[in-house]
Inverse folding.
């Protein structure tokens, strides 16, 4: 029998007969755990336990024939993830290694909720909301009320991560010599620079504060014991790296693969610096995370992890070229310089499963992870920043940062601008590029309602507000790397004070006389209209015709305006047959709100939006432009031919077929000198 106990002492002031007294409460809490119980906890968990839950819930498709981690798994997972609702999780038993691969495990609202140990994403959000209300309400309560709330506070305290002596289940086996090629690491897209570990929980420690960070950063495998470490400049892992570099000391790193899938979620969550991800994991699942010390590095990791890769980063080494990589934007992120990670040890549990994810043209598994963040972090955003915000939506085609839709309880003129200023200065919302603000009566998850609000309430150009600011490093259309324009669309109903025309300063559109050439190479593909506004989407072949010529040609076709303002969006030839969601994905990704939106002044103003890929010759664009992600014809044919052997359901056609017309055919990078 093993006994754990602690004493909780609380001191509070109370007034009795006009005198202040210090009252001491002493609470003794005893936890009893048997040795057999501890052995059970040590040996349970891992991805195997979650896989069994998925199987029991009918959320798992399994294949036992050999499947290649080089591209083949990606193509199968891409097809499955594009099914309505995210399809099923996939377990590949035969990967050419001793480790099965689990992918798309969190790729639906139901599976994401299961990973959060909740019945729904709404329930997980409410759990956070209730905890915040309790904690903030404590300050306003009497001493007696605080004492009454003590059991709940003690329960929350019991979810703090705890360190355990000795080895954990994740250290049952130790590779005699670390070999990353013994793991079924994926090559995801044809022009990737190599194999990438795509679902790592990278754990680091700040050298001064000992603050732990668990972040999600891809890792390109260069050799059996060396990878890249893709730390973006804005990320906490990069901050820790810079701190170690200042001290010129080796930086210990531990990479967790698998375990409770909640670890992968919290590693991607936008937590403030200094907040322990494993504390959030304990709170969400209502059970603390037990940590064990790594064998070769002074870092503690969850003992129920499936695989742990230990090592270090040496800041004195020069950074190396990493990439390209098919990224969550639906485009390749191109080569850049990043630090090297040296592997010193690889351990794994008896029943280890290798976790993986793929990212690319939406929707993918990362969309459902973002939806969880949307629900979980809405309550703290409302509490600490914007109490008037009633809801938030991050649509799949906005790939997290490109589009956010917010509803508010509007109470004064200019309220939408206040919302934009606050959100663009808040954590990872600083990367947002397009922000639509609507009234609380509009359901932000119903895109038809949102479009109706935009068409009815947005005045051109008065209700469009632009500024520059930080963007995601992966945004390829910005003015510069991780920097570019932002746009607010105020789609709220206007107060009397807002009715007068504001006429903000915009770049005027120079006159284009010759539209005949554009007419040969442009085509109108969508038109939407309301009583106040008309939106037209056209494609153009570049460099045969320019964006400005195409806009002028569309403008010349618009007759009988009926007192309407117009928005003319021009995108690339090849987008004609895209469904609306993918069309919006492509246009948002290719647009910088500061550079690519121009204005025709006049009685009926026209806004022109350049959503084409930018070329050096026609657009004076000096940055490299990435290609879209499509699978190779060879792999598509291979998967088609083997589909029945996979035994995972009826044939699903390749999503890449819809995107191929937009493929430049030049590898990961579009040739922009044309």
């Amino acid at each position: 029998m093993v006994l754990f106990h602690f004493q909780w002492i609380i001191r509070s002031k109370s007034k009795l007969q006009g005198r202040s007294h210090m009252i001491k409460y002493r609470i003794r809490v005893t936890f009893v755990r048997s040795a057999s119980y501890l052995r059970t906890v040590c040996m349970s968990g891992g991805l195997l336990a979650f896989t069994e839950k998925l199987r029991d819930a009918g959320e798992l498709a399994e294949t036992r024939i050999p499947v290649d981690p080089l591209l083949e798994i990606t193509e199968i997972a891409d097809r499955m993830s594009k099914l309505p609702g995210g399809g099923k999780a996939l377990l590949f038993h035969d990967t050419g290694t001793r480790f099965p691969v689990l992918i798309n495990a969190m790729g639906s609202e139901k599976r994401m909720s299961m990973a959060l140990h909740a019945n729904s994403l709404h329930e997980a959000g409410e759990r956070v909301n209730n905890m915040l209300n309790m904690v903030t309400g404590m300050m306003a309560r009497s001493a007696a009320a605080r004492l009454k709330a003590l059991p709940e506070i003690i329960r929350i305290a019991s979810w703090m991560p705890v360190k355990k002596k000795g080895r954990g289940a994740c250290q049952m086996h130790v590779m005699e010599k670390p070999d990353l090629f013994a793991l079924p690491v994926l090559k995801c897209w044809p022009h990737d620079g190599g194999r990438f570990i795509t679902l790592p929980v990278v754990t680091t420690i700040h050298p001064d504060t000992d603050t732990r960070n668990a972040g999600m950063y891809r890792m390109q495998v260069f050799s059996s014991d060396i990878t890249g470490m893709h730390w973006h400049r804005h990320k906490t892992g990069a901050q820790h790296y810079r701190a170690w570099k200042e001290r010129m000391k080796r930086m210990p790193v531990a990479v967790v693969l698998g375990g409770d899938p909640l670890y992968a979620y919290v590693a991607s969550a936008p937590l403030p610096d200094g907040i322990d991800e494993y504390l959030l994991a304990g709170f969400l699942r209502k059970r603390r995370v037990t940590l064990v010390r790594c064998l070769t590095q002074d870092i503690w990791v969850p003992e129920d992890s499936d695989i742990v890769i230990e090592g270090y980063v040496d800041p004195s080494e020069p950074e190396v070229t990493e990439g390209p990589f098919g990224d969550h934007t639906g485009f390749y992120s191109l080569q850049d310089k990043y630090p090297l990670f040296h592997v010193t040890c690889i351990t794994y549990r008896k029943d280890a499963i290798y976790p993986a994810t793929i990212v690319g043209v939406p929707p993918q598994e990362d969309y459902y992870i973002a939806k969880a963040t949307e629900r979980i972090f809405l309550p703290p955003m409302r509490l600490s920043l914007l109490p008037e915000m009633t809801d938030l939506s991050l649509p799949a085609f906005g790939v997290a940062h490109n589009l956010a839709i917010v509803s508010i309880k509007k109470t004064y003129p200019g309220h939408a601008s206040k919302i934009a200023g606050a959100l663009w200065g808040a954590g990872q919302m600083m990367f947002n590029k397009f922000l639509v603000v609507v009234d609380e009566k509009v359901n932000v998850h119903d895109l038809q309602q949102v479009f109706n609000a935009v068409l009815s309430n947005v005045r051109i150009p008065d209700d469009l507000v632009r500024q520059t600011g930080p963007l995601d490093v992966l945004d390829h259309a910005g003015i510069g790397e991780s920097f570019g324009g932002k746009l607010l669309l105020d789609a709220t109903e206007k107060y009397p004070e807002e009715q007068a025309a504001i006429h903000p300063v915009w770049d005027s559109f120079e006159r284009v006389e010759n539209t005949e050439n554009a007419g040969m190479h442009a085509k109108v593909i969508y038109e939407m209209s309301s009583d106040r506004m008309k939106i037209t989407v056209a494609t153009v072949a570049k460099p045969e015709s320019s964006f400005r010529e195409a806009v002028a040609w569309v403008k010349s076709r618009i007759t009988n305006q009926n007192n309407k303002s117009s928005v003319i969006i021009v995108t690339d030839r090849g987008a004609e047959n895209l469904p609306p969601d993918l069309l919006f994905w492509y246009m948002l990704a290719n647009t910088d709100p500061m550079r690519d939106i121009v204005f025709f002044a006049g009685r009926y103003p026209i806004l022109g939006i350049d959503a084409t890929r930018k070329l050096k010759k026609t657009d004076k664009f000096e940055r490299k432009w990435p290609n879209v992600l499509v699978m190779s014809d060879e792999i598509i044919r291979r998967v088609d031919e083997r589909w029945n052997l996979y035994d995972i359901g009826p044939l699903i056609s390749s999503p890449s077929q819809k995107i191929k017309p937009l493929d430049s055919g030049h590898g990961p990078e579009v040739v922009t000198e044309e």
Remarks:
- Residues 516-623 form a domain with the UbiD C-terminal domain-like fold (CATH 3.40.1670.10).
